[in-house]
Amino acid sequence: MIKEKFLEKSLFLVALSSISVLALIAFFIFEQGVPLIWKAGPFSFLLGERWFPSQGSFGIFPMIVGSFWVTIGALIIGVPLGVACAIFLCELTPAAVSAAFRPMIQLLAAIPSVIFGFWGLIVLVPLIRNYLGGPGLSVLAGSLVLGIMILPTIISISEDSLRALPRTLKEGALSLGATHWQTIWRVLLPAARSGIVASIILGMGRAIGETMAMIMVLGNAVQMPDSILSSTRTLTTNIGIEMGYATGDHRQALFATGVVLFFIIMGLNTLALVISGRRRS
Amino acid sequence: MKISRYATQWAAKVIVWMGAFSTLAVMIWILIQVLMEGLPLLHLDFFLDSPRQMGRSGGIFSTIIGTMALTAVAIIIATPLGVGTAVYLKEYTRETRLTRLIRFGTDCLAGVPSIIFGLFGFVFFVIFLKMGWSILSGGLTLAVMILPTIISTAEEAIKAIPRSYREVSFALGGTRWQTVARVILPNALPGILTGVLLGVGRSVGETAPLILTAGSSLLVPTSLFSPIRTMSVHFYILAREGISMEMAYATGAALILLILTINTLANWLLWRYVRKKRG
User: Looking at beta carbons, which residues of chain B come within 8 Å of A258?
Assistant: First the structure.
């Protein structure tokens, strides 16, 4: 009996590991980053347009804008493709075809981000430079690469929520004389809306968080991007590029960038959980 | 003119088919692009020789050892924690506020960007715990990253075990722990292994947090406290700093082959498991 009690208590402690790790991460990132945000002034840190760490001016607004545009671009490419794939897997193919298709999507999720970045660098960047102009290393290249990278997230969660719908919805629509497509478009997709929205938000989180592939294709200039062909820098790439040599206030400013990123991601995660949770209850 | 709804249906289905196949096509394009250039460069020497001249020549031996060591540390730490969490959530408690909090923490951890894990690993393991840039720091950082994957796959695997198994065990006088150790875990093993393999895949492919926690040394590691460079980090440095495109392609091809193998193995396990359950 003592052994049983002991094991139960140990398992309880183990079960707390994920939440305590999350707390540790928040604590250490904040401890490093927050003092600098106060020192620089929260307003001028978030909305300042000048990032010159050697002169002590830390404004991350261009990176926030950069992250925003690259993410929007990724969603414009990833959402229609991802939802199309989910519809394809659930409704348009026999089980055997989707059973063969699904491992492919898993493989897409497993490809390391540096491989995506490399492909963007050697295929997309020259294409953009030669046919559309500009440096090639651009918001457009970043959006295309990210749009592909977020597909597995969008596809798998959208597919799950489409599959979770009761059969009766589809049968009802078809028996009322709707075509198969009308059923998909007017009945199934709206019914699975919350899951699809959650998948998009999680894909958005993945897009905002991606670092290595973006370092390789964005060009990394600290500037407000004025078109989809201009180079930019995101919050993540700012950390990834400069962390290697930053010291003192500069390093703390990178942790402060991490704090901002952390808040954005936590906000998105919570939103996704609330949306998909509402459906469950 | 009104377009017939059957024409709309036809057009819409064509668009969806095109979407699905272009997704597949892009993925194959990415793989082929690297494999076409890289595969012809892969020889046995490439795997058995350490990088020389910063990677301009030689092979990738030390990075293979580095990748294996890091992955091993990550798996050894994360598997017991992840499986333990799943067992506790599924076998020891009902749904309470606490279990909801644990699930929320796990979901959030799964969404945290890898660069944040890198920053955390750097201040916590490298500096605060004074482990330096090392296999241990990098491995622990990776362990934290793959924990949510292992928890959720283990939970799914445990959930799939029929209630009757537990009831039989309890009816025979088994305690809760005996039930877990002799009935639940053996039956959930294939599912748990799938999660572990997914974790291995993620460890192999990860780059950003490792540069910050494991360093980028090209030497063959001698202890858990040696700094190392993994294959992914090596590939990134070769490609980004333009050291050698040829070596980058070769390393990229080796990386893709490794990922393909791990993924195939995971799928095979899952397939066998599903087939066995159908009887």
Answer: 115-116, 119
Neighbour tally for A207: CB within 10 Å: 28
Domain spans of chain A?
A: 26-280
Give yes or no: residues B164 and B199 share one domain. Answer: yes
The least confident of A26-35, B28-37, B44-53, B115-124 is B44-53
pTM: 0.93
**CATH hierarchy code of domain A26-280:** 1.10.3720.10
Weakest-pLDDT range from A196-200, A222-226, B179-183, B223-227: A222-226
Residues 123-152 of A with CB under 8 A from B: 123, 148, 151
CA gap A117, A104 in Å, rounded: 19
Handedness of CA A73, A75, A80, A84 (dihedral sign): positive
Interchain proximity B116–A265, CB inside 8 Å:
yes
The number of domains in chain B is 2
- pLDDT(A1) > 80: no
Q: What ipTM is given for this predicted complex?
A: 0.93
* A73-96 pLDDT per residue, tens: 999 999 999 999 999 999 998 888
Contact, A82 vs B19, CB < 8 A?
no
Query: Averaged over B264-268, what is the pLDDT?
Result: 88
Residue numbers of the domain that contains B31:
5-41
Residues 6+ apart with CB under 8 A from B276: B190
Whether residue B53 is found in the same domain as residue B29:
no
- Does B243 lie in the same domain as B111? yes
Cα separation of B211 and A82, whole Å? 31
Same domain, B34 and B62: no
What average pLDDT does range B142-168 have in this prediction?
93
Rounded CA-CA distance B62/B50 in Å is: 5
Residue B277 has pLDDT above 70, yes or no: no
Same domain, B11 and B109: no
Would you say how long chain A is, in residues?
A: 281
Euclidean distance between the first and the last CA atom of chain B, given in angstroms as a whole number:
56
Q: Cβ–Cβ of A107/B81 closer than 8 Å?
A: no
Share of chain A above pLDDT 90, in %: 78
Q: Looking at the DSSP assignment, which residues form a beta bridge with residue B58?
A: B51
| Other beta carbons less than 10 A from residue A261's beta carbon | 28
CB within 8 Å: B175 and A18: no
Query: Could you tell me if B247 and B207 lie in one domain?
Result: yes
By C-alpha distance, which of A158, A156, A160 is closest to A109?
A156
| CATH classification at residue B227 | 1.10.3720.10
